[in-house]
TrEMBL record:
Zn(2+) 1 binds at C463, C466, C503, C506. Component of the replication restart primosome. Residues 498-652 form the Helicase C-terminal domain. This is Replication restart protein PriA. Its cofactor is Zn(2+). The lineage of its organism: Bacteria, Bacillati, Bacillota, Bacilli, Lactobacillales. InterPro entries: DEAD/DEAH_box_helicase_dom (IPR011545), Helicase_ATP-bd (IPR014001), Helicase_C-like (IPR001650), P-loop_NTPase (IPR027417), PriA (IPR005259), PriA_3primeBD (IPR041222), PriA_3primeBD_sf (IPR042115), PriA_C (IPR041236). It comes from Oenococcus kitaharae DSM 17330. GO terms for biological process: DNA recombination; DNA replication initiation; DNA replication, synthesis of primer; double-strand break repair.
Amino acid sequence: MGFVVAVQDISHSDFELKEVQSIIDEKPLLNKEMLALSDWLARYVFSYRIQVIQAMLPNAFKAKYLKGLKIVGQLSDDIKKQFFLDKDEINFLPEQYDSRQLQLLNQLISQGKVVQTTTIAKKNRAKTVKVLSNALSEQQLTDLLNEKGHREAQKKILAFLQQHTDDHFQTKELAEILDISPASLTTAEKKGWLTAKQMPVTRNPVHAISVAKSQAIALNPDQEKVFQQVAQAIDNQKQETFLLEGITGSGKTEVYLQLIERTIAQGRNAILLVPEIALTPQMIRRVKARFSDAVALIHSGLSDGQRLDQWEEIRQGQIKIVIGTRSAIFAPLDNIGLIIIDEEHESNYKQEDNPRYHARDVALWRARFHGAVTLLGSATPSLESRARAQRGLFTLLRMDHRAVSGAMLPTVSIVDMREVWQKEHADSDFSPDLLDAVKQRIAAQEQTILLLNRRGYSSFVMCRNCGYVPHCPNCNLSLTLHMDSHALKCHYCGYETAIPTKCPVCGSSQIRYVGSGTEKIEAKLQALIPNVRIARLDQDTTRKKGSLEKILRDFGQQKYDVLLGTQMVAKGLDFPEVTLVGVLNADTGLNLPDYRSGEKTFDLLTQVAGRSGRSGKKGDVIIQTFNPDNYAIQYAAKQDYEGFYRKEMSLRHLADYSPYFYTLQIAVDGPDQFMASQAIDAVADFIKGRLAQQTIMLGPTPKAIAKLRNRYYFQIILKYKKDDNLEGTLRDLQSVFSERLPHDIYLSIDRDPVSF
Ligand code: ADP
Ligand code: ZN
Ligand code: ZN
């Protein structure tokens, strides 16, 4: 299967040309915009166009067409045998057949004996399911609600029906939402409160979500000012990019919703991106409550069938608002007036595999195409975006107060874990301050969020006595522990040193390996506070479909005292009863071998701190750290983004990093370490002489993950300025090396890599 992107007369070609055997889609899958986008993006991210197109389309398209042939006419046994057919459907995998067979197949198609079947959707269409919906009039409902003596479950049902007069639910689903037994629903059905009917199984993930309708909130003056400025650009169909720097809880989402409303009123459509799947349930609820049905959801947690259906609905023009994660930026939505990227600083917006695109770049391209407004929102904008606003490329908007009246930013205290370890026993994960605070919240029936900032592969060594972590003398980045070679290595420049037996700062010999996961911490906390009810939120506990929603819903209904998790707990969550946030180890992120580690730490701490005290009850945040003086932790404790921005910019300036220089990574990987290392040397030789004078080249060195799935990885980092004309050199590199490299060695180029 391939894609026809253009038709040209060619009399001669250097490539082997093939004929188009048959055409699958009568109507093109990709419109003009998408074709142009794929062309631009492929070049921009140094990828193949086919990879970009595949990233744009739902997965199901592969399955759909590979299975899509059906016999309708009479076929001889001979032919059936040839295609291994005992049923009347062919599992059509072109590579199973030789060209003669394919020719025969095409003949059968043209004779009408075989047809192409379309979507998988058709196969499932027959299925139906029983759903329940309200059977009572408004008056009956009011009367029933006024009657005394209903059982608890019955009260819940009536209250729910009042909110959801027109919706329908499956029994199991509704029982779960209301936290009652399915039997109570059967009783209600017998009483005539509910009617049951059969409905086709819907593969629409938005439809299944139930919400009470909500009204627009009157904006406060901060919000109003932002709203007016962006709304004006929307009205004028002016292509403009806004950066909204709004503290946590300042009411950014409410502004988004009202701007979307304005866009729709103008007859145009909107895309709203969130950085991860965990944030989609909450966002889709808030959007659906306002806009009911013209909403589509796209993220990688959906089944192939759901994604396909959503994609088709969007393409057919039934959708006005698309919500989703990174890949939703490719939604085939037309007539776009507004693109919002919430938490725009999040690194999840960058795809780490081919094609290595950033959703923000795609958004800006599409906004230009449609004459649309782009709104980037964050409490902690990326340095790149904030610097662009500084230079006037983006319009900077700010909201500095919490939206709920009386709600203040929480009080943040830093606990120096070095002292705790000296006074208490070393190795304790919980300081007495934090433990006491958690106990107080349990007693007051308030809630706590605990963050264990432990991410990624990297581990490091640290002096237990003074908190010292060894850094590279050339790059000032923390060194990574390599157990196999028993050494500390710098992943940027290749510097290498032995693991110290004594701390060079304080002389202590208590050097230790750092790392402790959420599961272990959960067990420890349970032992320390036996009556605490803990919900754990991490990749392990959310693997099952629907489990994320359930954990968050149960926490929202105060079935738990503590929500303990990885960075998943840090972002976007809005729970009014949370008045304490504890960060168990703020240092983990600081010691990643990454020039952005300060920024990432600041972002994460500021975001998680923002979960506390959102409803008007006073909130506290306790940050445990071995580096209480670190600037990122200090600024996060003050929740001072602008201060952090200035400090971090000066550090980036000194070290020639982004946003002063662009960065780009060239990587080579292969199954043989020596060959791969020779290949990266050859790459270095090739580009060295072609770089602009101010372009800086680091490496070659092994990548941070030097060996993965039996392949060895090497890299070169380039730091360059916009006018360095690097693109031409890199394209030459790609075309020369695609021939020169052995077939099992890959060359890849990553523009603006998230980490090296
Ligand atoms: P952010 O996205 O900036 O973190 P949210 O949009 O989640 O903030 O708003 C935080 C809380 O403030 C929410 O509970 C929201 O309903 C409430 N809120 C937003 N705007 C207003 C307003 N104008 N008046 C009262 N409450 C508001
Ligand atoms: Zn020390
Ligand atoms: Zn180094």
